[in-house]
Specification:
Bound molecules: zinc ion
Helix content: 55-70%
Number of helices: 13
Strand order of the largest sheet: 1-3-2
Low-confidence stretches: 1-6, 8-18, 30-47, 201-212
Distance between the termini: 137 Å
Number of domains: 1
């Protein structure tokens, strides 16, 4: 062997007669790739995305993502947030309305990825809003009950809030913002009247600008909420009607829309995304629940209560007519 020349040794542990042929090697590669498919992240497009499949509700982890909060800490946080809200708002105590809203919400929660029952309360406010916190606390404003025209619409709005809990948006957002005070979180997630009250309580100067993350979470809550509504048996397209009506109302009376709509870039693009989700991920069903007489009764009762209250307020401020003395 001349100096400088290299000699390489091919050491093989497999006996020559057992070496796989090219064909077998290719086969093994294909089998290996198929076996690895479930391990691939959902966004790579090859693995089946459980998040988009309503059949997988309850058998998937929709709250995946960077999160500094353990589930236990999240539960405690949710309870504290709910307590904070109850200090800031007036709860609407009407047994019939409360029972109806609670039944509807529990039914949606059962068909969601959240594995615990919700504590559902109606907030005595005409602002169109709803909010849910970890640990299963859902607040529904009377304004939302008045604004929705069918049970499917109300279910859609409530399911969207339940989806925020399922996907752990509160603590994922808090992780990103490293906001550790409850009032700050109430502000982010509730906005509107409750948010302002919490902000005042916490002496916070301005809302925290996390619009980008907010929007991402809003889209995710729309997707999951639609699935919950669909699985519960409601018409998922009702949510499009609701948002479109809400937007036209906002044009007529600015300030009507609260957190439910404002975090999104535009209602039109949101509705387009909802329609696409319905078309591409929800198998059409022969029939859906759109409305019930219980919803109609609840709404009529609530309208009557508020009409009576407005009348009392109007009467209180009406100028008194006095007979002129000559
Ligand atoms: Zn939302």
């Amino acid at each position: 062997m001349s100096p400088g020349s290299k000699r390489t040794f091919h050491v093989s542990l497999t006996p020559r007669h057992m070496k796989p042929s090219k064909f077998v090697k290719r086969r093994l590669r294909i089998v290996g790739a198929v076996l690895l498919l479930p391990l691939l992240p959902p966004h790579c497009g090859l693995a089946k995305d459980k998040k988009k499949d309503p059949e997988e509700i309850g058998n998937r982890n929709v709250g995946r993502g960077i999160n500094f909060y353990s589930f236990e800490r999240e539960m405690i946080l949710g309870r504290e947030l709910a307590k904070e809200v109850e200090l800031q708002v007036r709860i609407f105590y009407d047994p019939a309305i409360g029972e109806y809203v609670n039944r509807l919400g529990q039914n949606l929660a059962r068909n969601s990825d959240v594995r615990l029952p919700f504590t559902i309360k109606v907030v005595d406010s005409e602002e169109v809003n709803a909010c849910a916190f970890p640990g299963g606390f859902l607040f529904v404003n009377a304004g939302l009950l008045l604004m929705t025209e069918t049970e499917a619409e109300l279910a859609g709005a409530m399911a969207h809030e339940i989806a925020h809990v399922a996907a752990r948006h509160a603590t994922r957002q808090a992780t990103r913002a490293t906001i550790m005070d409850y009032a700050g979180l109430v502000l982010i997630f509730m906005g509107g009247e409750v948010g302002y009250a919490a902000r005042a309580a916490a002496h916070l100067a301005a809302p925290i600008g996390l619009a980008k993350f907010s929007r991402m979470f809003e889209s995710e809550a729309d997707l999951l909420g639609l699935q919950y509504v669909y699985k519960t048996g409601y018409d998922p397209t009702a949510l499009v009607d609701f948002f479109e009506r809400l937007e036209s109302l906002e044009h007529r009376t600015p300030g009507t829309m609260a957190r439910l709509v404002l975090a999104h870039p535009s209602t039109r693009s949101r509705c387009r995304a909802i329609q696409k989700t319905i078309r591409t991920t929800l198998r059409p069903r022969p029939e859906y629940v759109v409305n019930t007489s219980e919803f109609e009764n609840m709404r009529a009762r609530l309208l009557a209560i508020y009409a009576q209250r407005h009348k009392i307020e109007r009467d209180a401020y009406r100028p008194m007519l006095k007979a002129r003395r000559n």
